[in-house]
Write a structure and sequence with these properties.
This protein is mainly α and 126 residues long. It contains 3 helices and no strands. The protein is elongated.
Length: 126
C-alpha cells in the first residue's frame, strides 16, 4: 500500500512572521490594539529590510557596561590598589551608563521613525 504525499507547500515567511510576533509579544512590545511596534512584513520593501528592522527591535535597548576589576597580586598594597581601581571603574561606569541610557532613548526614536516610514510606504502602495 502506497501513500501519496499531497501536502501544500510551506510558506516559510508566514511562519517566520508568526514566530517574530510571538517573540515581540513576550518582550511586551505589542501595542494594546495588537499592532506590533515594528512592522515585521510588508509588500513594498524587501524581506531583508523587515528582518533588519526586527533585529534592531530586539537589541535597541541592550546596552551597558559591567564592572570588571582584575585582582592585583602585589603584597600589602594589592588590596589598596584594587579598591582604588574599583572606585575609578565605578566613576567611569556611572558616566558610560548615563551615555548608554541616552543612546537607548535615541535608538528608540530612530527605530520608531524608520518603522513609521515603512508603514507609510506600505499605505501608499495599497
Amino acid at each position: 500500500m502506497t501513500e501519496t504525499n499531497t501536502t501544500t507547500p510551506v510558506n516559510i515567511e508566514e511562519i517566520m512572521q508568526e514566530i517574530r510576533q510571538q517573540i515581540l509579544a513576550k518582550k511586551d512590545v505589542i501595542r494594546a490594539e495588537g499592532a506590533p511596534v515594528v512592522a515585521i512584513s510588508g509588500k513594498r520593501l524587501s524581506p531583508d529590510f523587515y528582518e533588519h528592522l526586527y533585529q534592531a527591535n530586539l537589541v535597541y535597548d541592550q546596552m551597558g557596561v559591567k564592572m570588571l576589576v582584575t585582582k592585583v597580586n602585589i603584597p600589602l598594597i594589592g588590596p589598596l590598589l584594587e579598591k582604588l581601581r574599583g572606585k575609578l571603574h565605578e566613576l567611569v561606569l556611572f558616566y558610560v551608563n548615563k551615555l548608554a541610557a541616552e543612546q537607548i532613548q535615541f535608538n528608540t526614536h530612530i527605530l520608531q521613525a524608520v518603522n513609521l516610514l515603512a508603514q507609510e510606504m506600505e499605505k501608499e502602495s495599497q
